[in-house]
Amino acid sequence: xxxxxxxxxxxxxxxxxxxxxxxxxxxxxxxxxxxxxxxxxxxxxxxxxxxxxxxxxxxxxxxxxxxxxxxxxxxxxxxxxxxxxxxxxxxxxxxxxxxxxxxxxxxxxxxxxxxxxxxxxxxxxxxxxxxxxxxxxxxxxxxxxxxxxxxxxxxxxxxxxxxxxxxxxxxxxxxxxxxxxxxxxxxxxxxxxxxxxxxxxxxxxxxxxxxxxxxxxxxxxxxxxxxxxxxxxxxxxxxxxxxxxxxxxxxxxxxxxxxxxxxxxxxxxxxxxxxxxxxxxxxxxx
Length: 286
Description:
Layout lengths: L7 E2 L7 E12 L2 E6 L1 E2 L16 E5 L2 E13 L5 E3 L13 E8 L9 E6 L1 H24 L18 H5 E6 L4 E6 L2 H4 L7 H22 L3 E4 L10 E5 L4 E5 L11 E10 L5 E10 L1
Parallel strand pairs: 1-4
Antiparallel strand pairs: 2-3, 2-9, 3-8, 5-6, 5-9, 6-7, 6-8, 10-11, 11-16, 12-13, 13-14, 15-16
Helix pairs in contact: 1-4
């Protein structure tokens, strides 16, 4: 691995299969971490762990290995290896080398072996649908909450105050839905009107869902723009909405068109003390 700066990844193009060379293996919690030179597997990003890592299989010399997880790993300037939450720096830190680490339960192919990689397509498609839905919901929620801002703040790609980007505390993607948590603290309340927010939630959710339905009906194209194939490339989700083409920084996987969804609905809830707004967005695929 000495000459490799970062794993090359093909998942931004939608790839779910590939051929690679094993560069090395590491003992990691739960099994063996296999590092290859190029992969279609999407690894969990330790800096913003919203979309889980892909699972699937790895085949070498006629032997099939189950890949039960894929995470981000790194090698620091002193040669120290870390993976997942044990990495002490943000992904892309230039003094580190970055890899996708495929977790295999038990034995693993040896360094130098050629392997065939196969991502679980069904699970990937479900995660991609939920992740695309998450970004669309954010844009629709920004619009629905736009008139509650007391002060001018930065705008999203559609020109609305970017509530999602400024307030989101946590985002999680799973095969059934996405869950976004927004922290409503004292600092936000100085700029954002929360008066009557609880009572307004049904109407806000209705407005968001109406906007989402309209976008799905347009079957807008979706793509991932990336400056390069390396794992650390700063990728962007791009959707050609009717109003304008919108981009959101994102390291995950996505649908190709909005028409792949039959419906996309959000449920909004507010914590008892009003300190957290939760949006659960559920896609239904065709």
